[in-house]
Amino acid sequence: QVQLVESGGGLVQSGGSLRLSCQASGMIFGVFAMGWYRQAPGKQRELVASIARGGTTSYADSVKGRFTISRDNAKNRGYLQMNSLKPEDTAVYYCYAEGPYWGQGTQVTVSS
What we know:
Elements: E1 3-7, E2 10-13, E3 18-25, E4 34-39, E5 46-51, E6 57-59, E7 67-72, E8 77-82, E9 91-97, E10 101-102, E11 106-111
Parallel strand pairs: 2-11
Antiparallel strand pairs: 1-3, 3-8, 4-5, 4-9, 5-6, 7-8, 9-10, 9-11
């Protein structure tokens, strides 16, 4: 059974940083593209960043230069380093792996 479990969310002040982790189990993580989505209250879920199995990355314009996606296939883990956080980054962040497989989400709240 495939499971994705996010961690690392929380409350941070504007300008601060957080690092989200996504622990995968029940799958050979390295063969899948993975990514991070977010959903703010009243808004649609949006793709924040993705990383292909070969390591090519892609980012939403709103987070370019501030967020970095990475993966450690040996540990079956993905990461999202978020710097210079803004109140508009407040959302539930979801880990995704092609399949599709989804994590349960982790709340990120950025106070102004």
